[in-house]
Amino acid sequence: MKTQRISALVASGLLVVGASASQVALAAKTHSVSANLGAVSNYIWRGQSQTQDGPAIQGGLDYAHESGFSAGTWVSNVDFGDDINDINYELDFYTGFGGSISDDLSYALKLIYYAYPDGRDSDFSEIGASATYKWLTAGVDYTLYGQADDADGVADGESTYIEGDLYYHASLDFELPFELGLSLRGGYYDFRYNEGGNDYAHWGVTLSRKAGDFGTFSLNYDQIGRDTYDDDPRVWVGWLKEF
To answer: Where is the signal peptide (predicted)?
Structure first.
């Protein structure tokens, strides 16, 4: 999902809306363990493909406690192009804490580490916070640590530790009749080292349908709003099954 290099930016798309999101425990259980398995025709994270517009198989395992604590891991194949270390897969580790302030208002805190075990200088970590009021969710993620070669604003041929990138995001999520779901989302990536040269906004829409024991299917649209990137609209499909 998410190397620091601008040419290969993430969660995954919707069906993984989750690519890196932890599951919520049932209120009646002190401990809850769940798993998920998904497939997408294009792994999109923060508006950009992580698979060169190709398909991905994804899955994760999550633990949650009734106190609001959660932790988990998630994996997906990736393809950032032959010029980026020939990275083949992403492995995420995350933990978080969340709760409800009222019936309509809740919050979530998270710490996540994005690992690319077969790559070099590509791992990074973020801390994030979000709040949900009824159907509106908004939040921000902050890059705590990352390493990138030849990042903008860094001397040629040098490696540097990257921190301070900010990603702002918001979504509107609605439950529709016939077990349909509608999600409208948008985000803005503010990079620290490029003096605004690579910052960008993106937006997307997802229509999903629950199919009982067969999981959830989705039809998705995503686009980046800056022509220095590949700003062609992307339409992709996904499937997610939770256990």
So the answer is: 1-27
Q: Can you tell me the distance from the alpha carbon of 77 to that of 117, in angstroms, rounded to the nearest whole number?
A: 12
Residue identified by tokens 């998270």 is 110
Nearest to 79 by CA among 42, 111, 40: 42
| pTM of the model as a whole | 0.84
d(CA 6, CA 106): 32
Taking 3-state DSSP, the helix, strand and coil percentages for the chain, each rounded to the nearest 5, stand at 5, 55, 40
Q: Which of 95-104, 151-160, 225-234 has the highest mean pLDDT?
A: 95-104
Domains observed in the chain: 6-242 (2.40.160.40)
